[in-house]
Structures are given as structure tokens and as C-alpha cells.
């Protein structure tokens, strides 16, 4: 992956910037810089309308192959889109899990019937997805999944519980990793199911966070049902499908994430100037280290994107989650130190947080969700470096 961009790429960048400047106005003006991590509870209906607006402009599925309804844009152009989207203050995507995770997985591993059924709803911004992976006893270690499913009379019957399910209350579909082979353990006996959320057998319960918000949930499955053919791969292939999907999670959207991080860093720098903290040499050193760390994340992502875009993970991709989550956590700490005594004061009652206070509290979770630091180090050691596997206690 080259670091620079061609004149054609820069012309495309201007096209993206112009479209965003024209459309992030009027009814969508209030969405600028809203709906990101820690703020995902805000404006859900308006952000769904924004997804439909993006669909009209052809900005959903830009990297998908054209034969599946996408635009087939180059990696360079996809990077440009995500960077310009974040630069313009594009709101947190209600359709991210559909477009960035399950959509590419269906393209890679789904049946033709599944692609025809599910891809148009994602591309048109009218069907939204959530992720049914983590469980109370299987958070970072998906091999411990206990939610079970069995095939009866042409339907999968699902029982169990998922947790930390972002935007489950706003989603029509959930992809669920379930154990379909009785007595199986670890990676064996898992199956990847596509489950409709709007049915009597599913209950969604919000989880209130330190930020006071509740964008993610517990989801309870009590004889929930889905059709027999709503399965990606064969029964027992769930682990392989799940790992392919997680590979897509480390795709070009990582560059957009980093642009959001840059926006946050710039806000911290502005706060340092306002409070006078920028005169402290140690604070200046930490700000410089944060700036340099963000550059390292960018270059590693560009290197990561040099490989195939089929969901397989290169070694560079395996270090990404550990790297960005620790960088972001440290930025939250830096924000509080920059604010000084103001960090301890609420903006209003009963619990009105400033943006930087929300940033600090939310980043406490960065090194936990999506695979804790400990699990990430195991992945790097075992899968990237080929070291012996850690003994598993069953």
C-alpha cells in the first residue's frame, strides 16, 4: 500500500468532500461529529435517515464488488472516503456492522440466495444488524460460547444469552455464534446463524454504562427461531466464519477510526491551550507522543491493507486492536490531565458530561471489548508468531 495518492485519487477526495459538505446540512447538520463511540445512543432515527441519504448517493458498499451491488472502488479510494467522512464530522454509522462486517462475509462465504436476500437491505440503508458473539462467560474468548441451537422442523431453535450487543435495540437482524453440536467444546461444534430480531423469543435489555448511556445490551434467546437456511457455511463451520468476519473488521474503516481519533486529539490540544496546560513540558511531551502514536497507527494500517481483502489476517492486522485501544485509553487519561480540576466538575445535573469526560470514561472499555489486551497478546503470540498455544482449562 503506497503512502501517497495519485491525482485521480485526489480528484475523488474532492468529490467526497463536496458531497459531504452539501449533504451534512439542513436536517443532518445536527449529526456532525455525533453518534461515535460513547455517543451511539444519540439521534438513532436521524442517523438511519442519513444511511438512506448515503445510499442515494452511492456511498454504501463502496468497496464491495460491483456484481454484488457495490462500487468496486480501489483501496486508496476507500481510504480516502473514510478519512474525508471523519474529517467532515460524518455521524457514527448505524449501518457499520451490516456494511463492514456481515456484508463482506456474505460476499465471501454466503450463498447466492443469502446475498440476494440480505445485501440490498444493507446497501439501501433500510436493514440494520447487530453482532451476537460475546456472552457473560465468553467475552474475549469466543471459544467459550454456550448459546445453543438445534435444528427442528426446518428451523433453528436458539437458547442462550449474548452481551455487549451494540445497537441491538435498533437492529432488524443479528448474526449469532451458537453451539449446535451437544457436548462440543472450544472451536468445535459452533455454527454461524442469521437471526431476525423482531420475534417473541428475543428480549433486549439495555446496559447502562459509566457514561450514563445505554447503546449496548444484553440479548436473551428463549426458543428464538430462524430458518434452516439462515446459516453461513455448514453446521460446525462457525469458528471459521467468525474469524473471517473479524478479519473484515480490520479493513479500510480503520483509517476512518483514526481520523476520528485525530478529531479527538485536536479537541484535547484546544483544551490544553484553553486551560494553560500546554505550558507544562510534560503535557506537551504527552501530546507529542499521542500525535506520533497516531501516525504509527496510520502507517501500520496502510501496511495492513497491502494484503488481500478476503477476511484473512496478516500479522500487521493482529497487532492493530492492541495498539489502538491502548493509544485511545491513554488519550482519555491525557484529556483529564489537560482539564485539571475541571475534569471533576459536571457540566450540569444530574449527570451531564462534557465530551472529554465522556471520552475518558468510554475509553476505559477500549482494552476490554472486542477482545481484551490479554486475549490480543495471545492472538499475536499464537497466530502471528507461531508460539505454543496457552494451555486451556476446561
UniProtKB/TrEMBL annotation:
Needed co-factor(s): FAD
SUPFAM superfamilies, A to Z: Acyl-CoA dehydrogenase C-terminal domain-like, Acyl-CoA dehydrogenase NM domain-like
InterPro entries: Acyl-CoA_Oxase/DH_mid-dom, Acyl-CoA_Oxase/DH_mid-dom_sf, AcylCo_DH-like_C, AcylCo_DH/oxidase_C, AcylCoA_DH/ox_N, AcylCoA_DH/ox_N_sf, AcylCoA_DH/oxidase_NM_dom_sf, Mycobact_Acyl-CoA_DH
The keyword Flavoprotein appears for this protein: yes
Acyl-CoA dehydrogenase/oxidase C-terminal domain residues: 236-384
Entry keywords, A to Z: FAD, Flavoprotein, Oxidoreductase
One GO cellular component term noted in the UniProt record for this chain: plasma membrane
Gene3D superfamilies: Acyl-CoA dehydrogenase/oxidase, N-terminal domain (1.10.540.10), Butyryl-CoA Dehydrogenase, subunit A, domain 2 (2.40.110.10), Butyryl-CoA Dehydrogenase, subunit A, domain 3 (1.20.140.10)
Domain annotation Acyl-CoA oxidase/dehydrogenase middle: ranges: 130-223
Family the UniProt entry places it in: Belongs to the acyl-CoA dehydrogenase family.
Record protein name field: Putative acyl-CoA dehydrogenase
Amino acid at each position: 500500500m503506497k503512502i501517497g495518492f495519485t491525482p485521480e485519487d485526489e480528484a475523488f477526495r474532492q468529490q467526497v468532500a463536496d458531497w459531504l459538505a452539501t449533504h451534512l446540512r439542513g436536517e443532518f447538520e445536527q449529526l456532525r461529529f455525533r453518534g461515535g463511540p460513547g455517543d451511539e445512543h444519540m439521534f438513532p432515527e436521524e442517523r438511519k435517515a442519513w444511511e438512506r441519504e448515503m445510499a442515494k448517493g452511492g456511498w454504501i458498499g463502496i468497496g464491495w464488488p460491483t456484481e454484488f451491488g457495490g462500487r468496486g472502488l480501489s483501496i486508496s479510494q476507500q481510504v480516502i472516503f473514510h478519512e474525508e467522512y471523519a474529517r467532515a464530522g460524518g455521524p457514527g454509522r448505524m449501518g457499520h456492522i451490516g456494511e463492514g462486517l456481515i456484508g463482506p462475509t456474505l460476499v465471501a462465504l454466503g450463498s447466492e440466495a443469502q446475498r440476494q436476500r440480505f445485501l440490498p437491505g444493507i446497501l439501501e440503508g433500510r436493514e440494520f444488524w447487530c453482532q451476537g458473539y460475546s456472552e457473560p462467560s465468553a467475552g474475549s474468548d469466543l471459544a467459550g460460547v454456550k448459546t445453543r441451537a438445534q435444528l427442528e422442523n426446518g428451523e433453528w431453535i436458539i437458547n442462550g444469552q449474548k452481551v455487549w450487543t451494540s445497537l441491538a435495540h435498533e437492529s432488524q437482524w443479528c448474526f449469532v455464534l451458537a453451539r449446535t453440536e451437544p457436548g462440543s467444546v472450544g472451536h468445535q461444534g459452533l455454527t454461524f446463524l442469521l437471526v431476525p430480531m423482531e420475534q417473541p423469543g428475543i428480549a433486549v435489555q439495555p446496559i447502562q454504562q459509566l457514561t450514563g448511556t445505554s447503546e449496548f445490551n444484553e440479548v436473551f434467546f428463549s426458543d428464538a427461531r430462524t430458518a434452516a437456511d439462515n446459516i453461513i457455511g455448514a453446521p460446525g463451520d462457525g469458528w471459521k466464519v467468525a474469524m473471517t468476519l473479524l478479519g473484515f473488521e480490520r479493513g479500510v474503516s480503520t483509517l476512518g477510526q483514526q481520523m476520528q481519533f485525530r478529531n479527538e486529539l485536536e479537541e484535547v490540544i484546544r483544551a490544553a491551550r484553553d486551560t494553560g496546560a500546554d505550558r507544562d513540558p510534560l503535557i506537551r511531551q504527552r501530546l507529542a507522543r499521542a500525535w506520533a502514536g497516531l501516525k504509527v497507527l496510520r502507517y501500520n494500517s496502510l501496511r495492513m491493507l497491502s494484503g488481500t481483502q478476503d477476511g484473512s489476517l496478516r500479522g500487521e492486522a493482529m497487532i492493530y486492536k492492541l495498539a489502538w485501544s491502548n493509544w485511545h485509553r491513554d488519550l482519555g487519561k491525557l484529556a483529564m490531565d489537560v482539564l485539571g480540576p475541571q475534569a471533576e466538575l459536571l457540566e450540569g445535573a444530574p449527570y451531564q458530561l462534557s465530551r472529554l469526560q465522556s471520552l475518558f470514561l468510554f475509553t476505559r472499555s477500549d482494552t476490554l471489548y472486542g477482545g481484551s489486551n490479554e486475549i490480543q497478546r495471545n492472538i499475536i503470540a499464537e497466530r502471528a508468531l507461531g508460539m505454543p498455544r496457552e494451555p486451556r482449562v476446561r
